[in-house]
Write a structure and sequence with these properties.
With 397 residues, the protein is α+β, with helices and mostly antiparallel strands. The protein contains 10 helices and 17 strands. It has a 7-stranded antiparallel β-sheet. A 6-stranded mixed β-sheet has the order 1-2-3-4-12-11, covered by helices on one side. Strand 3 and strand 4 form a beta hairpin. Helix 3 packs across helix 7 and helix 4 runs antiparallel to helix 7. The mean pLDDT is 95.
Length: 397
Amino acid sequence: MPVITLLEGTDSRKPVKIWTDEVSPQALEQMRKVASLPFIHKHVAGMPDIHLGKGATIGSVIATTEAIIPAAVGVDIGCGMNAVQLSLKASDLPDSLLAIRHDIEKVIPLGAGGQHKEAQLAGDSSVARGLQRILEKHPDIVHRGNRDKFVRQMGSLGSGNHFIELCLDEQDNVWIMLHSGSRGIGNQIGQYFIHLARKDMERQQIHLPDRDLGYLKEGSDHFDDYVEAVVWAQNYALLNREHMMNSILNVLHQHLKPFTVINEAINCHHNFVEQELHDGQQVWVTRKGAIRARKNELGIIPGSMGARSYIIRGRGNPEAFCSCAHGAGRSMSRTAAKKAFSVRDLEDQTQGIECRKDKGVLDEIPAAYKNIDKVMSLQNDLVEVVCTLRQIVNVKG
């Protein structure tokens, strides 16, 4: 499906291309504001799951020359997905999956402040040394009392829409899929540099359409430090997911017959920035709630906790800067979902899935999300489907 919503460019604004016509006025206005910044490359792209975000729209792809907007990268730096296929079939699983879910919940800390009791990283590891170098220049990123928290949060899920799932594909093969990011340390790095960018704008008397669109220019005081910090957080997020994957595999080995991981593990960030070549030019590409989908590159697009998910292969569409949607995308705020639905609604919408069915996860009810099948139909020029997954176990943060 080609671009559906197009906001024409003007003398002061680049065009906006969106792969859906279901865009709220607030999200459209956010896209217009981003497109008005002087360093936008070519146009701003919006994915089919686009919805309102803080600073920049979730589901947006922003290519920039010689500048990065920290708030567009966001505070859940490196948030993304991992998936592996196992040498197991549905028939190899027990009739009840409750014990498996409970044991996963025991070994992986859940919730906003979730962390292990003991350090999961050595204090002299390359990860710890990398953060130490960053903190030597910017000690205020982390409060001194929380300096060691990141070594205990390694291998923890977080809250909100972060999840762990066991899934089955069309041939009843068993998959593990999980969604998480850089936890508290990534949040602190993001908040810190968003604040620095805002202060830089004030000091230079640069007037922005939104104060959260403060940016760091190449060669400025904090640009290289931010790139170093955000790359560190993206790598931490990747390690965090790998650590959890190993913990989940250990749980399954205790409950199931011997098995192996088959095919390659799929890893993809959807809140990140990296330098890429587009239109013959090196640019910084920020994907906020979008994944990279270069030609033949594998990725993961999850639905809600009651809908199917997809393993995809990118088509490398240049109009989308080789990107695609990162999921279904919310159609309703968390507050609105809690008001609109009951626990009974949650039970009805998650029938056949071993998961929590209580008011604590009511804001994640499937009806609060867009229809994942429609999202997929809108981006068949961005990706092709490799296989379709349906979840049978869901663990929420």
